[in-house]
């Protein structure tokens, strides 16, 4: 089977782009439903695999129970190998961890990563390649897809079959079901909030997957070195990560200043919540833009989403409409946010937030 | 450096500057349903209603074009070419681009539903034809929300990519672009060798409005037309649209009258605090 996939990959390389009909006839066969193997492109930080990447593994599991899942990690140095051993035991469905250790992969640049995935796909002949819809996944996966001459599917929220996916379009105002009818591999980025990962209980004995080094001797160097990493800046914060937080407290333009935005931060602290913001609040300079929730910012789906002074524009709703409970506090009783809120409170947030701070129970 | 007027920079051209003096920038623009329109899903689930609906240039594409125009105005580029793929009406979008300040435009007459892979191949063919030094696109179209085309064309061209750019600085001597990118954890800065592909994030700039004289001027600018066949590109459709549906409706919520009531609901009804 694996040999067939490799043959298929080679065949496709030999005749690039011409005959979509002949290549798609392969994938319509039963071969795929019998043999599903997935490569998950994983991100790591500080020696462990990011939660969003573990969600990608959960999505791979949703493609087929019989899926043989390999996780690909790249980078250099000891934190890579720490992350590899974390990857080996972070999800019971992982059957293999592939590690690419090279200076060229020290930073997650699209050019070397795309060449790496191309190389690994040629070796492994995977039927699916998945990454989380993080800025990393969105940057790298489409480039790889172009190298492999296949159409990727962005931001999948539901997997209905090995080739059948649901994804939001028009800022989440419509859901689109697509069938992938092309040659292997079928490539996806998944919305991690739609594929939650159950925390591994300490006592559950997790079998550890074998870790294999990727042979980089044939790493194609055409595009390497054309981009260089200079630096990274981020806001240090003790609060939970916006993408995975159980509670999110968001402020909009009505906060009026960065100084006032501290009210939101205080409330977030009290609730053990992450802080979010609307585009208006980011553009006005109240908070850095990595806190933006919406179509063009982060997509969140916490258990509780509290919006203060947020009108509820289409583009903002796109980023939070899947939250379990939505609370809206706004002076304007006609604000669109009230149409999606489970609990609305019409009033001045400068009076309501302090009252909440006073009356909310202490977080244990 | 960047702010230098084109007329003065022309007086002291070094060899490198002469090369850059001819620098071309290509910008891809897409015609989409206006961002403020509340879309309606067709009753036969075949898609979203687009007839008799206000269409505009994709907001991210406006930002891409604005950035190209600013680079040209700073004297670092000589020409900005706007390109668009799709049905005849794309010409309207290109006219908007020309009215903003693009020098000329190319329209590839293609079916309305093109997947990013096909757009990337058409763009590659146009790049091979026009040989620009920089290709700027929006990071995503607000209709299909794919966020793929720029990355795909960069892959096909084997060019470096600077996606989700919030700041772009060109260095004429070194032939590089320094791109600040909006990434999940904050900002990341990359240095790309030209030619390169850049995709724009919302905070890169504030696009200008086309003035009436410029709209008039745009009418006489050239829009060249190609077909995919002329560009030797086969439109690939390895994705099949099965259906488009409305997202699940949220059930109506309640308006509470006080903070105490809100806390009570969150505690005893929603059990979230």
- Strand order within the widest beta sheet of chain A: 7-11-6-1-4-5-12
**Estimated structural class of chain B:** alpha/beta
CATH superfamily of the largest domain in chain A: HUPs
List the quaternary state of the chains.
heterodimer
Tell me the strand order in the biggest sheet of chain B: 9-8-7-10-6-1-4-5-11
The average pLDDT value of chain A, as a whole number, equals 88
The two chains with the largest interface, and their residue counts, are: A-B, 95 and 84 residues
Helix amount of chain A: 25-40%
Question: Element order, helices and strands of chain B?
Answer: HHEEEHEHEHEHEEEEHEEEH
General form of chain A: elongated
Question: Whole-Å distance between the termini of chain A?
Answer: 54 Å
| Radius of gyration of chain B from CA coordinates | 22 Å
CATH fold-level assignment of chain B? Rossmann fold
Count of spatially separate domains of chain A: 2
**How large, in whole angstroms, is the Cα Rg of chain A?**
22 Å
Q: Give the low-pLDDT segments of chain A.
A: 6-33
| Percentage beta strand of chain A | 15-25%
